[in-house]
Amino acid sequence: MEIELKLLLTPQAAQSLRTHPLLKKYGIGEPREEKLSGTYYDTSNCDLRRAGAGLRVRQVDGHWVQTMKAGGGVASGLHSRHEWESPVAGPTPDLAALRELVDHGSSWNKLLRSREVEQGLLPVFMTSVTRTIWDLRLAEGTEIECVLDLGSLERGKDKEAICEIELELKSGNADQLYGLALELLESIPMQIGNASKAERGYALLAPVPARAVKAEALVLSRHMNIEKAFQLIVANCRAQIQANEDGVMHRHDPESLHQMRVGIRRLRSAFSLFAPVLQVPEDMREDLNWIATQLGAARDWDVLADSTLSRLADAPTDAALIGMVHNAAQKRAQQLHGEAAAAVTSPRYTRLVLRLSRWMRACDWRETPPRQASARLRDPVIRFADDMLDQLDRKLRKRGRRLHKATPEARHRARIAAKKTRYAAEFFQSLYNGRKLRRYVNALSHLQDELGFLNDAAVADRLLQDLHGKDIDLASGVGFVRGYLSRSADTDAGVIRKRWKKLKRLSTPW
Fold first, then answer.
1. Which of 170, 162, 164, 184 is nearest to 24 (CA)?
2. Cis bond leading into 31, ω under 30°?
3. pLDDT tens track for 485-510
4. Is the Cβ–Cβ distance between 53 and 173 less than 8 Å?
5. Which of 21, 322, 395, 508 is the most exposed place for a label (fewest CB within 10 A)?
6. Kindly report the CA angle at 382 between 232 and 397, in degrees rounded to 5?
7. Exposure of 128 in the CB half-sphere (CA atoms within 13 A)
8. What distance in Å separates the CA atoms of residue 242 and residue 240, rounded to the nearest whole number?
9. Cα torsion for 229, 235, 238, 243, to the nearest 10°?
10. Residue 286: exposure state from Cβ atoms within 10 A (0-12, 13-18, ≥19)
11. Is the pTM value of this prediction over 0.85?
């Protein structure tokens, strides 16, 4: 199994890496340089790619080597994959030799024996790379191969630059890959690289459209301990966050930004939920709050432009006035999407992801007081889930009293309580009766949605005042929208009362 941490950087940063004192401090011998040219092969239907495999033939110093990588996964730039490699006589794959290396009973061996692969392999794209390699031995004895790749991916006339670092674990503790990356990040700006060269090359063949990614369903066991459940929940949140990074950074996709923000809110909620048994580093919490704020600013303007103002489509007023407000809101949203993208590509965000990943892999909370609370991590998660859901439900019911007549501040507190209770119920959903819990979560979701509409209206009023202050020509349109939203709040209050009564009638499903 190959384990490596991939990081992206600029050509200027790559030059700084070459003279970085850490490479001299940890280096074993002198760096070496290789010229690599390779071709990736697949069928016309991309059977290898669809099976999660990649097949490459590369020329290294006049010799030909074929490599197949398959399976495994990637999280926070840490790639873990099965790898099979053998010499070949020329620039085309030798499937017979490769099959001898791959476990005969595996799906990968079966794939290599299929008629489609046997008879239909074609070159799909090429790589051309200058590789510099440093062999490193860290103070703890962990040995790492630090690789700097500069070059390009090519398919016909299409070309994409390669400028990346790979920190491959040769022996020792994989946690140290994150530690070394954090040391380098102090002076070299970098980003997490979640896509392999193969994935980037296939994107030249068929560009992948922007697609927002929601959280996958969590499956926990009633016999699982609290610590294991925490690890799975955090991994689930982190996967949702990182799956939407590309849409935020490169495509300014509103739904990707929304889902990334939801993932961050779920992660913060998980940290709060498990606070009785473990302590999250304060600076990590601060960085999570920071990135949530960066994304939240753009999201607020997206909601105003695409959701709140659309409620006025049939309002009795001059459509041109609403159109002017809508255009101004969209322009502001686009500007803030650019700022959100800059935040996600920043060293501060990279540092957050690396630190979170190292903290999770090393289980550093075990060394953090209070030790009595940490000892509870070995207890069954089901008892913990019962207690926490009870506490959250009681707090929500207290906040929900006379909700339809509450102040905006009280409604906001109730919305937060509903959101935290819903996230916790979704985290632990697989531990309980599915039908009962789904009814409870659905009731929570409907209440949260209605409270969210009122909150959106309150946020919209603040944003509209901001627009008015910057452009006096929007005064009439802004005035109408603010009045309309204020009147509609009375109607929403009635719906909230119905939603709240429905939730109150439900017994807790745990």
1. 184
2. no
3. 777 766 666 788 888 888 888 888 88
4. no
5. 21
6. 100
7. 6
8. 6
9. -130
10. exposed
11. yes
